[in-house]
Structure formats: structure tokens, C-alpha cells
Specification:
The protein is an alpha+beta fold. It has one domain. It contains nine helices and eleven strands. The strands form four sheets. Strands 6-9-8-7 form a four-stranded mixed β-sheet, with no helix packed on it. The chain has a three-stranded antiparallel β-sheet with strand order 1-2-3. Strands 4-5 form a two-stranded antiparallel sheet. Helix 1 packs antiparallel against helix 7 and helix 5 packs across helix 6. It holds the Pfam family Endonuclease_1. Keywords: Endonuclease, Hydrolase, Nuclease, Signal. It comes from Streptomyces violaceorubidus.
């Protein structure tokens, strides 16, 4: 298995590096790379072997077992990990901020105005897991974001509509929901679906689920399911998102977000 992973890692890294080498800094309205609707089957005969051919609840259960085999990070270790997973392909000294789309110095991580911090895309109060090792430190839903924009998102559910977020790169918000910029709507959806598969009530953590509403508060739910499914369809994985998934798998947690490799599995499960 290790030999297979090593060979595949070299092949994927070389291919991804070629794509990323041609990218410029992400704009506020465009995705960092050309989106693709093609499912990636590189790991179907190995990593996803137990899930192939399944649908619905059986697929969700199989994926839960697969992705639960992971290396867990401490919350402090997340800082350095994000500097690698979200590195700006055009400037190795910077990270790309998720909602803002801006490129900001890796050294500006912290809690002050102008800094970036660790955004929990699945808001940590939705399930009350805080920053505990596990869901609170899972890189598949933690991303760099401007401190103030992160504060505006807070623990709101995801939905369409609202007023422009200052410095949010086109993101919108209202009293009970947040809409990220177009270029990362699919990224956000796939992170949410990953969390709903990975955390099913074991390990002392809540059973995280996606539902059809907003205003979920502290319940272990996030919505809005129909909108997140649309975002997954309209903004398929791009080279930046795929590269990030590979870095998390190779260098940190050694598990993958299956919905980046197979976006079509969202419709099969939900």
C-alpha cells in the first residue's frame, strides 16, 4: 500500500505542479484554476476500493470508515499546516484567503485587524466541538481567512443572498446565513459534506449532519442542503482544491475529501 501511495503521490504531485505553475494569483471573482467536472479515479482501486459501486446510505457508511482513518493534528499545528495547504501558487510566502480570495503573507497569522486566522467552515458551535483535536482541528474544513471577514461569517449557515461583506471578495451575508464568493462555493459545499460523512457520532463527538434550513444555532447541523448541492454542481473542483486535498493526504492527515475526487457522490448520498 505504501509503495502504491508513493508512486501515485509522485505522479499527482508532478501533474499538479505543472498545472499550478501556470496559475496567477486568484482574483476576487475567478477560481484559481479552470474547473473540471471529471471525477478523479486515481484512488478508486486502492483508497476508495470499499466504496466503489455503493450508493446512498451504504456509500456514506463506506466513506465514513475510509476517511476516519486519519492522523489528527493539534490546533496549534494547524497554523503551519495551513501555510502549506493554502499556499499561493504565485507567491510561496503567502496564503490564499478562502472567502476574500486575497493573497496574504503567511507571517500575518493571528487575531488582529489585517491578520488571517483559522476559519472553521463547519462552524465549531454547530456540534459544540470547539477546537478539540478531531473536528476542531480537521484540515479538510479549516481554511485561512481575514480576521474581520471570519467574524462576519461567525457561525452562520450557508445560503444565497444578503448584503456585500466588506473585504469579502463578493461574499454576501444576512442575519442568519453567509454566501461565499462564487469561486469557492463548491469548495465550501464539499467541505461541509466531508464533515457530515467523517463525524457520525463516534469518538465522543456529535453526529454532524447537513439539513434543509438555516438558523441551526448550536445544533450539530448546517444548512442549507439544497443550496450546498447546487454550489457543488455549479463550482466543480479546480486545480487549487485538488492540490490542497493531495497535500492534506500526503503530508498531514493521510485521508482525503472524497467529494473533491468524486463530486457526483454528493447527489448519490443526499
Amino acid at each position: 500500500m505504501l509503495a502504491i501511495r508513493t508512486r501515485r503521490r509522485k505522479a499527482v504531485v508532478l501533474a499538479t505542479a505543472t498545472v499550478l505553475a501556470g496559475l496567477s494569483s486568484p482574483s476576487l471573482t475567478a477560481s484559481p484554476a479552470t474547473a473540471t467536472t471529471t471525477a478523479h479515479t486515481d484512488y478508486d482501486s486502492t483508497y476508495y476500493k470499499a466504496a466503489i459501486g455503493k450508493t446512498g446510505a451504504s456509500l456514506k457508511a463506506a466513506l465514513h470508515t475510509i476517511v476516519s482513518d486519519q492522523t489528527k493534528l493539534s490546533y496549534s499545528a494547524v497554523w503551519d499546516a495551513l501555510k502549506a495547504t493554502d499556499e499561493d501558487p504565485a507567491d510561496s510566502g503567502n496564503v490564499i484567503l478562502l472567502y476574500s480570495g486575497l493573497s496574504r503573507s503567511k507571517s500575518l497569522n493571528g487575531g488582529d485587524t489585517g491578520d488571517w486566522n483559522r476559519e472553521h467552515v463547519w462552524a465549531k458551535s454547530h456540534g459544540d466541538f470547539g477546537t478539540a483535536t478531531g473536528p476542531g482541528t480537521d484540515l479538510h474544513h479549516l481554511r485561512p481567512e481575514d480576521v474581520q471577514v471570519n467574524g462576519v461569517r461567525g457561525n452562520k449557515d450557508f445560503d444565497d443572498g444578503g448584503s456585500a461583506v466588506s473585504g469579502g471578495g463578493g461574499s454576501l451575508t444576512d442575519s442568519d446565513s453567509f454566501e461565499p464568493r462564487d469561486a469557492v462555493k463548491g469548495d465550501v459545499a464539499r467541505m461541509i459534506f466531508y464533515m457530515a460523512v467523517r463525524y457520525e457520532g463516534g469518538d465522543g463527538f456529535a453526529d454532524l449532519e447537513v439539513n434543509g434550513q438555516v438558523g441551526n444555532g448550536s445544533a450539530p447541523y448546517i444548512g442549507k442542503l439544497s443550496v450546498l448541492k447546487t454550489w457543488n454542481d455549479e463550482d466543480p473542483p479546480d486545480a487549487f482544491e485538488e492540490h490542497r486535498n493531495q497535500v492534506v493526504y500526503d503530508d498531514y492527515q493521510h485521508n482525503r475529501n472524497p467529494f473533491i475526487d468524486h463530486p457526483e457522490w454528493v447527489e448519490s448520498i443526499w
